[in-house]
Amino acid sequence: MIATAGTKGVAVLGSTGSIGTTALRVLERQRDRFRVVALTANSNRALLSEQVKKFAPAFVGMVEQQQGEADESWKSGSEALISAATRDDVDIVLNAIVGAAGLDATLAALKKGKRVALANKETLVIAGDVVKKTCAAGCGEVVPVDSEHSAILQCITGHPSSQVRRVVLTASGGPFRGWSDQQLAGATIEDALRHPTWRMGRKITIDSATLANKALEVIEAHFLFDLPYDSIEVVVHPQSIIHSFVEFIDGSVVAQMSVPTMELPVLYALTHPERVSDEGVPPFDPVSLSPMTFESVDHQRFPALRLGIDAGRAGGSAPAVFNAANECAVAAFLAGKIRFSDIPRAISSALDALGDMPAGSRENLLAADGAARNHVREMFRC
Ligand code: NAD
Ligand code: MG
């Protein structure tokens, strides 16, 4: 792609994933505003090569690259993520990496004063305070890509935070909404991967089935919008049309809606507070989208949500332990080593054992992350 004066340079980290490929569709349509400067992936060489052909970025990184496997100009190892995120020609870093692997790139980009369009919610869950301090010191900016947080941002933009009374995050309820305990006990990997409204990467799809995703999102909202946990609620909305509600101090409630597509929140994270013309979102037809319904969360069947919110309230290293135990347990579930109900069991056990490890720095939080992963591996001998 030829660099054009006046366009903003974008690094897409995790370009081969669900959000990464969505972002490239958006960026392809918006070539007069943005140019793709850097692409990184973990190991999907074939797809990354295709993307490189199409966008001709100045920088390409593949973390797990064997010597001689790909173009020699591609950078390898996790340092490639930092290099991509800190380039002078990069204005916006779209962090679409899954899991704790995304943390250091976020911090490095913020230190350099970049805008981070953040899909990698784990960054804020593991190290929300550290991210905020780094952001302030480096004059960076975090703009959420997560649809619920994009919705909140779209509702509150133009209003001081003192006017916000509470937010209500919507949750689809996942594939197991309404399942009995007996059915849940026999839930298979295929069942858990069958999300009713969103097509996403495997890890977040399992997080949506356990509702751990919504716990990550409550913690993410706490840090993004400086909201106390008492002001963040969750409601099940199976159609995923309303992406969140904001209640203001006068009692008025504003919601943001669209058919479920991540193209809109990705675009908004790139252009906020502006809006630009785009053809990516299917037309909004309230009649065909009817009915829109709402239900309370079933905390007894989906204990991961409460565990995560409690970890958020406890603060310190507890959210990092919650996240790492969840990541490790989800990987074990997807590898067929543990049952679905073992995921919240693993989280709860790790939090009991390790929830008050030292926090306050990236190093301490990563030590808590590592300890939680070891705890879960030992628990299931996997
Ligand atoms: P995905 O698994 O489809 O893609 C993950 C990407 O990260 C891939 O490009 C992969 O190559 C890269 N990656 C994986 N491990 C890596 C590592 N160790 N080092 C460097 N790169 C690595 O995941 P996704 O569904 O696109 O989700 C990405 C992030 O966005 C997650 O944090 C998720 O919670 C969040 N998110 C996703 C959606 C969605 O619709 N998919 C919506 C909201 C938020
Ligand atoms: Mg979300």
Per DSSP, what share of the residues sits in E-state strands of 2 or more residues?
Answer: 5-15%
Q: Strand sequence of the main sheet, in spatial order?
A: 4-3-2-1-5-6-7
Bound molecules: nicotinamide-adenine-dinucleotide, magnesium ion
Residue stretches low in confidence (pLDDT < 50, at least 5 long) are none
DSSP summary: helix tally: 15
- The whole-number mean of residue pLDDT values reads 96
Strand/helix succession: EHEHEEHEHEHEHEHHHHEEEHHHHH
Oligomer: single chain
Biggest β-sheet strands, sense, barrel: 7 strands, parallel
Based on Cα principal axes, name the global outline.
globular
Rg is 20 Å
For the terminal residues, how far apart are their CA atoms? 45 Å
List keywords for this structure.
single chain, about 375 residues, alpha/beta, 7-stranded parallel beta sheet, 4-stranded mixed beta sheet, 15 helices, about 15% strand, binds nicotinamide-adenine-dinucleotide, binds magnesium ion
